[in-house]
What we know:
By secondary structure, chain A is of the alpha+beta class.
Amino acid sequence: MKQMIKSKKGYKTIVTIFSLLFIAIAFVFFSYLFKNIGKDDVAVASQFKSIDTEYALRTFLASPSGIEPEELKVYVGDHMSNAQIAARTCTEQNTREYETLKENARIYFNKLYGDNNWRLELIYVKNSETNPEITGDSVGELDIDSALDIYESYEKFRTLTDDSELSRKRVLYALNIRGSRLGMQILPCNNDNSIVKLVLVNNLGEKEVAVITVGSA
Amino acid sequence: MNRFNLFSGRRKKGQVEEMVEQIPYIILTILVIFGIYALLNYATNPQIKVANVQANVFVYRTLYSPHSISQFDNNTGRVYPGIIIDEKFTSQTLDESMQYSYEKQISAKLEIYLEGSSEPVRTAYYNKEWYDKLRPVANSRFSGAGSAQILSKQVPIVYRQPGADFPAVMNFTIVIPE
């Protein structure tokens, strides 16, 4: 090697070899770079995760709850779905319906997304038109802030309030975000003029095109 | 005779050696030109494979179309995607619910599996004729013009039979020609 470097020809040969190697490495590097950029763009356009999440929530609500209508001693039709149960949990939470709803959600979404990859927020709102009174609960272990941090509106609203559970629910009630990893449904309650808003967040997938609108609560 | 006049007349030994020395540089130049062309071509003319998009759009059209297999309320005009009606789950309903610009564009097999069951309880086809023709082609794993791709997607559903709802999974096996 030392002899090659000393001679002019040898030096040129070494330079040529290293140039070829450099070109090859540069080519591989740029190819990888371009390929990855392209792959991300295609992935964003092809996955439709916002639709998937909302579909999952809607299908869960339409699923049979396991509670027979006769057990409730009031007529609720032939089928008792999770949506019907959710609509019956607005005024009282220490009921069999409420526990069944939470247990059904646990079984359904654990199967779909895996443990710790989802969270279902139940937000109960009384007097929704003027001075809304908000309460609620949640099922699932996912840290909802980390999943919602990608939404600018959520961040903006959250900084205006404190970090308590209740203020988070106020923000989730006020915002109507449609986007990747997020699905929302609003149901009228069974007994009074309240509504229940269900917000499903999952931890799968990257940011997708999000249409964000802000509610008027 | 100077060094740029290598290809005319008789050459001396030194001149031949000089020409041989140029070969690596010529190869290098060709490689660089080829590399730049390849990178520019790759970056500016990306061939985006749309099969995944086509498959997803097909799934959502099937689930959200008012005259497809999902429950549809005639009074409100509202579709309940994910609630699959037993009597509507037929190949005929699927074929009539969606029209593509040409017949060969997409074909699919839809299977409903009840929770905990490994055998499908119902099966229906969209564009069965082309599904049967293209499925063997897709299975051959050849790529390029004339070949086909198989894509599959599972979605949770509520399978509604008269008087009873069942939690189930619907499996889409979609065949898309290249």
